[in-house]
């Protein structure tokens, strides 16, 4: 799987069971499905009737030997035309409604499922892959179900009706004209597949060319400084000539396909004229019937072409269908056990005692313990082995150590984003798996390295921590973490728009806003991956004071990069290869002159020098 939009693999066989499962999503919309099916059949019926009216008119003219009264014929023709218009209106409305409703439903279901899935699921699925599931795959399926099924019903009905009419009108001539249908089906199936594949290639190269333009423009300076222009041009020419090749191929295929089909139509009309003409001369066939035969011979192409097109599109969209259905069928790996669900049912009521959580256990988190925890992301590669750690409320634990040691893994497990592969994590002595997942995670406050802010005002971003918070509570939280002062100095104070991803604020400011958000949520466990980016001394001090407010009275885990945070931590754990190799306070560990001392002098000396330099400067 690559993190780029991929075209589907073309399946050679139509997987009917898959399409049955996809079509189930249309069942809630019977109010649209019924008119859709009825209008498709009615339109096919009307389409097939025009030639019969013409036959009737021609035969009446011939019989009369002069211009007869054609008013009834005109009236029926007009009635058919209006019925056709009405039918088309009904089916466009129903199909459009069905397509929109279904793509909305499938997308919403996928989105809900994505929100329920555990982090491990996303380790193997790039964001781009999931975004395609939510957008293009859902649309593709909905389009096929609504418009494709409409075309299919209409086309199959029309082909059957025309065939029946031809055979009833004149069995021998009917079968002769119908003899062009099998080659017509074969040619349509072959060429529709070729056309689908070559137009996909055209789209693929087109998007590669667009991406190449964008990259060339964005990286213009770098290319110039590295004198890469010639090479870039060569790469672009390669893409461009491939695009030219597939476009020509696509045009050539159309150029061959359409004449073949038209020729087959003409052959059918020729057969009708040849055999039907002699029938007219010897009186065994009316002129009107001959005209109807010629008309039908030309009318076959359209529905057969449609059937081939829809079936080929279904084959092409099968991979999209499989992916969407497999996403919907994925069972979240981390969820409440049956026992927890039972307790939630019993206790998750407004009248439960104030000291109980919705899962019926104690609400206050007094301790969190890792007991003989083993963990690996992928089979066989152990990240934590027999990991033990007990933390009490009010304690701040700083995790330090070389990259890849397992610091993030420890906090991921504490947050129950992943579950141990061995051993237990205990909350107040109960296995974490015995606690309600939603309750537990709603008691976590997490601030990651690049704190994420959403587009919107500063106020809205802080309120994200607790949606029912009042403006006063929001400002109090901001004051609590020392963010109030800088927020008031912004253009519109708390109502200042932070821009996409908070890009109108500096890193330090974003952190302060995210601290306010965390404080407002008032979590019992606070987890932070400290940012490594350099921040001026003043903001650094603000951040430290803000952190002090957050750490107070909670269990806090900090993957610490800043000296100031490490110094104030109650316990520093040096993590290496998934084990605690040293543990103690800053002073204790420095005095021990072990790993922490070495790490400190090597890794943190620089920062201290930088901050001293900053202070002097
Ligand atoms: N999602 C994942 N899937 C597979 N392996 C992972 C995943 N996340 C981390 N690892 C592996 O687990 C080990 C521990 O990683 P972890 O991120 O916990 O270390 P860390 O000490 O936090 O490192 P850093 O300081 O660089 O963030 C590493 O070998 C890493 O490659």
UniProtKB/TrEMBL annotation:
Record-annotated ABC transmembrane type-1 domain positions: 36-316
Bilayer topology: Multi-pass membrane protein
Boundaries of every ABC transporter domain copy: 368-602
Location in the cell: Cell membrane
Primary subcellular site in the record, as a coarse category: membrane
GO-annotated molecular function: ABC-type oligopeptide transporter activity; ATP binding; ATP hydrolysis activity
Segments crossing the lipid bilayer: 32-58, 70-92, 144-166, 172-191, 255-274, 280-298
Protein name in the entry: ABC transporter ATP-binding protein
Gene Ontology annotations for the cellular component aspect, listed alphabetically: plasma membrane
InterPro entries linked to this entry: AAA+_ATPase (IPR003593), ABC1_TM_dom (IPR011527), ABC1_TM_sf (IPR036640), ABC_transporter-like_ATP-bd (IPR003439), P-loop_NTPase (IPR027417), Type_1_exporter (IPR039421)
Domain of life of the native organism: Bacteria
Protein source organism: Luteolibacter yonseiensis
UniProtKB keywords: ATP-binding, Membrane, Nucleotide-binding, Transmembrane, Transmembrane helix, Transport
């Amino acid at each position: 799987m690559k993190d780029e939009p991929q075209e589907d693999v073309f399946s050679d066989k139509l997987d009917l069971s898959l399409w049955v499962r996809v079509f189930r999503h249309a069942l809630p919309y019977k109010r649209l499905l019924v008119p859709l099916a009825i209008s498709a059949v009615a339109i096919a019926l009307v389409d097939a009737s025009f030639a019969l009216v013409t036959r009737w008119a021609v035969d009446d003219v011939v019989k009369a030997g002069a211009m007869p009264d054609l008013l009834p014929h005109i009236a029926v023709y007009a009635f058919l035309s209006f019925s056709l218009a009405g039918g088309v209106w009904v089916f466009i409305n129903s199909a459009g409604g069905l397509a929109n409703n279904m793509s909305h439903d499938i997308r919403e279901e996928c989105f809900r499922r994505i929100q329920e899935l555990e982090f491990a699921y996303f380790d193997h699925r790039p964001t781009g892959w999931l975004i395609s599931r939510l957008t293009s795959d859902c649309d593709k399926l909905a389009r096929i179900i609504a418009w494709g099924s409409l075309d299919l019903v209409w086309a199959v009905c029309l082909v059957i009706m025309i065939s029946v009419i031809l055979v009833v009108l004149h069995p021998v001539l009917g079968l002769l004209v119908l003899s062009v249908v099998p080659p017509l089906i074969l040619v349509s199936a072959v060429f529709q597949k070729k056309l689908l594949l070559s137009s996909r290639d055209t789209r693929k190269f087109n998007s590669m060319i667009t991406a190449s333009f964008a990259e060339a423009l964005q990286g213009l300076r770098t290319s110039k400084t590295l004198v890469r222009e010639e090479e870039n041009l060569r790469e672009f020419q390669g893409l461009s000539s491939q695009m030219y090749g597939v476009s020509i191929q696509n045009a050539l295929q159309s150029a061959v396909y359409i004449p073949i089909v038209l020729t087959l139509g003409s052959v059918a009309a020729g057969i009708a004229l040849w055999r039907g003409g002699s029938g007219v001369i010897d009186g065994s066939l009316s002129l009107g019937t001959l005209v109807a035969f010629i008309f039908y011979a030309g009318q076959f192409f359209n529905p057969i072409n449609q059937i081939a097109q829809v079936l080929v599109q279904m084959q092409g969209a099968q991979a999209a269908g499989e992916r969407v259905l497999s996403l919907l069928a994925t069972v979240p790996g981390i969820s409440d056990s049956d026992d927890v669900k039972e307790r939630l049912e019993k206790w998750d009521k407004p009248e439960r005692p104030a000291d109980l959580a919705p899962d019926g256990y104690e609400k206050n988190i007094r301790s969190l313990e890792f007991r003989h925890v083993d963990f690996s992301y992928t089979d066989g590669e152990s990240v934590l082995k027999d990991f033990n750690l007990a933390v009490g409320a009010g304690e701040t634990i700083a995790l330090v150590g070389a990259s890849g040691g397992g610091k993030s893994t420890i906090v991921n497990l504490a947050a129950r984003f992943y579950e141990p592969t061995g051993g237990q994590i205990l909350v107040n002595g109960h296995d974490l798996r015995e606690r309600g997942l939603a309750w537990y995670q709603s008691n976590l406050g997490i601030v990651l390295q690049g704190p994420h802010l959403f587009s919107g005002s500063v106020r809205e971003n802080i309120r994200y921590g607790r949606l029912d918070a009042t403006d006063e509570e929001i400002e109090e939280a901001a004051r609590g973490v020392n963010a109030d002062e800088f927020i008031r100095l912004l253009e519109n104070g708390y109502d200042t728009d932070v821009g996409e991803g908070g890009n109108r604020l500096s890193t330090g400011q974003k952190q302060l806003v995210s601290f306010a958000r965390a404080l407002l949520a008032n979590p019992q466990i606070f987890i932070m991956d400290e940012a490594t980016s350099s921040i001026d001394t003043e903001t650094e001090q603000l951040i430290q004071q803000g952190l002090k407010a957050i750490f107070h009275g909670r269990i806090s885990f900090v993957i610490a990069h800043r000296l100031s945070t490490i110094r104030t931590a109650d316990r520093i754990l040096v993590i290496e290869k998934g084990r605690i190799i040293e543990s103690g306070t800053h002073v204790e560990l420095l005095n021990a002159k072990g790993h922490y001392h070495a790490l400190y002098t090597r890794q943190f000396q620089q920062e201290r020098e930088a901050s001293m330099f900053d202070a002097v400067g």
